[in-house]
Description:
The chain has twelve helices and ten strands. It is an alpha+beta fold and about 450 residues long. It has a five-stranded mixed beta sheet, with helices on one face. Strands 1-2-3 form a three-stranded mixed beta sheet, with no helix packed on it. Strands 7-8 form a two-stranded antiparallel ribbon.
Amino acid sequence: QTNTPPKTPDPQQREKKKKKKKxxxxxxxxxRPAKHPAKPPAAKPEPTTTxxxxxxxSEDKSETKKQAKGARVPKQQPSKSPAPQxxxxxxxxxxxxxxxxxxxxxxxxxxxxxxxAAEPEKPAPAKSAKAPxxxxxxxxxxxxxxxxxxxxGKAAPKGKPVExxxxxxxxAVKGKAKGAPAKGxxxxxxxEPEKPAxxxxxxxAKATPPPKVAPKEPExxxxxxxxxxxxxxxxxxxxxxxxxxxxxxxxxxxxxxxLSTIQSYKRAEKYxxxxxxxxxxxxxxxxxxxxxxxxxxxxxxxxxxVIRIRGILGVSPKxxxxxxxxxxxxxxxxxxxxxxxxxxQMLRLVEPYVTYxxxxxxxxxxxxxxxxxxxxxxxxxxxxxxxxxxxxxxxxNIICVEDIIHEIYTSGPKFKQVNRFLWPFxxxxxxxxxxxxxxxxxxxxxxxxxxxxxxxxxxxxx
Length: 462
């Protein structure tokens, strides 16, 4: 099939047709080399060709047809040359054609990596060439012909004459062939750029998103400022003043607490040294009396611990009155008393209903730390913090529990105030129970004075 030219040809096409007619009338010689031979690759030069390798030229036409159809060209392997040539010939690289055009097969362009350069010098013909196979003579060549590369993996068959091609393929730059291609090839080249356009038409275009609109800020409505009433202003002013005073008082209280804790530690150390000194003095006096052969009379006790052991049945009014004065209103209540003349007479009257003795430092300390309660505004409050003692007894120079213990054990000048500050101790029934309440302690019972044996009973009841 032949493509008919357009009805209104351009003047350029007319000139091209005239040139083609002239070439048909006066065809160029077959041995004429290519006007623009391809530049050989700079990396690896191909080996030189020999006369024996020229026999494979006849198969080039068939190979070009396969290339036009899109067949994959096998890798070329250099044939073994019997004798190396002094000057290597340029080796164009052939690439497979994309499509076979309709009509007359066009000459396939050769793709090269290097850009087109100036025309190189004509290659010199081979000086020595072997004769072809026996029985078949090669075609005579009027002029030397430039050497052509042989495809790798194929050797020239023996006995076939070498037919040089009329005109070698021209190098193409970026997929375009130079020279005048055939009509079918021209039409194919025109159709090629239309293919991506068709593919692009089939692809659905992406919908452009709508432009983002910034949200409108809400309009700020300014309300009229209402003046604050004077009463509220005064209240706020008073509140801020109270808050500032509260903060100041809290800071001052913290400072006072720190000072009181430091003072309480110092006083406790002082009292401990005093107790040790009293005990050492007693031990020394006993030893000196024994060494002198005499007797040591113990100092009279200053305080006593009184515990109620009987109820109210069959109690005379006088005894009831004394028990109320001693604040012994319940069973197993205990109080500290100072041993004076009137107090000893009162204790003799209520001996059948109570038991008493002379406590030591350990008994006093355990009772106050374990069973100690304070009487603050007629309320029974446990002694859990020295701050309670400092708030209620600071006017008597008593700020901690150790001060209370020291005043009671030594029967100090503030014994009465400290004893009234303490709530009567509520003891439990003794472990193992009493022996006999109605009989005196000296007769084997529990009532009456038991002197220092009161400490043993308190440990059972505490």
